[in-house]
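Figure 2 data, in text form.
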Amino acid sequence: MADSDDGAGSTAASRSSRTVRMRIAIAIGAVLLVAIGLVVGRVTTPTITYPSTLSAEAGFARDMQVHHQQAIDMAMTVREQTTDPEVSQLAYDIATSQGQQAGQMFAWLNLWGLPQVSPSPQMTWMTLPTLDQSASDHGMNMSSTESTPGAGDAFVPGTLMPGMASAADLANLRTLTGVDAEKLFLTLMIAHHRGGVEMAQALVERSTNADVLALANSIIKAQSSEIGYMTELLAARS
């Protein structure tokens, strides 16, 4: 009986030993799989590269926020000066859409770890080479509108951005009411939109960033459409 018991004990010990070794092997294999997964993940996951502070994307985000803010100010002013439902609704749409876009660009700069204020004069980014290294013509080329005065000329960093209304025009708008306010608002906003489209087109010519390109193209599409609509409203008041 002793020999039988010893054999059974030896068999049990052998099985236990194999079980322990198997568990150790499984554990080691699991660790190796995790390690391989991490290495593969690092190799296959694309590295996110954010725009630099002097890039076209950063310059566009900063300058277009300023450009949008003036449009919002003009829109809110005319809503107080008119009772016309079409102009009032247009002004509301401009203020809300451009406010949302300005917030999006503000958030981009935060995400990119860049200051909201540019270290270089405004519009400097618009003098950067285009992607195809060709000479860029920012002049408007829309059949439904006239060209922006000076469009296509070389930009001088630090000067007034395309389409921006003067301080005198803004002050004048605040003194008018009714049709007079509507006519000045539409005149100023048409020029302002043309400038905004020009700036957005300049970005498209200089960027491969999908998010920024999507916004720039949406600005081109929406503001080009609004230019046509505002031209019709202005003609009806002439």
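Caption note: The chain has two domains: 1-47, 56-236.
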